[in-house]
Amino acid sequence: MHSRLQIIHLQFILKSVCVGLVVGIVVSCFRWSIEKSLSFWQLLYRQASINPTLILIILIANLGIGLFIGYLSQSQPHIMGSGIPEVEGQINNQLQLAWWPIFWRKFVAGTLAIGSGLFSGREGPSIQLGAALGQGLGEYFEDNLPNQKVIFAAGAAAGLAAAFNAPLAGNFLFRLFLS
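Predicted structure:
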């Protein structure tokens, strides 16, 4: 029995490492896309100080981005805000969300919103992105719901760790969700 328990622990460790790697790569891409978008918008604003006609283009572009994010939010309202309440709701079995619609919409909307200079942090969206990926990988790896929750929590923890470049932060969140 003790040997079987060690094998199960090793399997969860390996699955969690896999989830952590995937989430780390995806959240790094998310952060990179935000930084590139911010650089683009900063350049555009600098150019607008030289050429005032660009201000109209910037306003129209921001309006278009806002309408597009509103459209994405209308079809999937759980991408609005930080996403942390949704992750907590899923952990506590109060919400059942499909991971893929949340994941891609949160990635796109977060990049557009934060990257265009809206006042928002990247930490909450990173946790929700990690949780969504953890949910998807948990569904792929596991057939039983409690084990899927462990992989889900590992994804959320990896999202937090990647958002702050702090691997120990992920360990803290993982333990917090599972306590």
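Summary: Residues 2-50 form the longest helix (49 residues).
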